[in-house]
Amino acid sequence: MMAGSHIALGAAAWFVAAPRFGMPALDPVSIGLAVFGSLLPDIDHPKSWVGKRVWPISLICGRIFGHRGMTHSLIAISGCIALLLSEQLSVAFTAPLVVGYLSHLAADLLTPGGLRLAWPLRGVWSLPLCRTGSPFEPLVVALVLSWAWGNTAEKFDLKDGLRAAGVCRLLAPELPSLCEAEAVAKTPRSGWQGLAWVGETAPAVIRR
Ligand SMILES: [Zn+2]
Q: Which of 120, 129, 73, 121 is nearest to 101 (CA)?
């Protein structure tokens, strides 16, 4: 599948998996890790999105393992499970990364190219639903995304999203209905503050 599809499917997989790990589905760092994990298996292809960014490494990986070789095999899946069970690494880091990685393998399984799960042995496993880059690919991605969104425990809150992005800090007075809390805090106070106790020391002007 194309990099964009893997990104969307990696995020979708995390939306569904996060509540199972007791983690927030819409945490930006976790989504970022899931997306990174969803692109990682194609490190064995120098022309893939991730391959272009780590060019010498992807070239070496491609030469040694071949595209959709070890990084798309049961060895890689075992590595993912080992990573998840590792006590040295935080689940907050490994869970989204592994979920994203496995979403990539599941997506590649849906293409005619399939997966060489038993790598280095020959034999391809595939459930050919759509060809890479075909018009059906966005359709499959859209269906999976809508299913994942329906299964996400958290719902997106526009106000929280704007606050998190810092929009309300800049535009609270212009967007009072969306940024009520910030708008109230930023409203300039009038000159008259009412009567207030100022303590025992009276102003010099009054003393005189
Ligand atoms: Zn792949």
A: 73
* Residue in 136, 76, 134, 81 with CA at minimum distance from that of residue 105: 76
In angstroms, the CA 60 to CA 52 distance is: 12
pLDDT of residue 186: 52
What are the pLDDT digits (tens) for 67-108? 888 999 999 999 999 999 998 999 999 999 999 999 999 999
Residue 31, CB-side half-sphere exposure with 13 Å CA sphere: 11
C-alpha 199 – ligand 1 centre gap (Å) = 73
pTM to 2 decimals?
Answer: 0.72
Task: Tell how far the Cα of 83 is from the centroid of ligand 1, in angstroms.
Answer: 20
Task: Look at residue 203 and tell me whether its pLDDT is greater than 80.
Answer: no
**69 C-alpha to ligand 1 centroid (Å):** 9
Say which residues have a Cβ less than 8 Å from residue 50's Cβ, sequence separation at least 6: 3, 39, 40, 42, 43, 58
Spacing, Cα 171 to ligand 1 middle (Å): 43
Dist. CA 22 → ligand 1 center (Å): 28
CA of 119 to the centre of ligand 1 (A): 14
Report the separation in Å between the CA atom of 44 and the middle of ligand 1, taken as the mean of its atom positions.
8
Name the pLDDT band for 46 (thresholds 50, 70, 90): confident
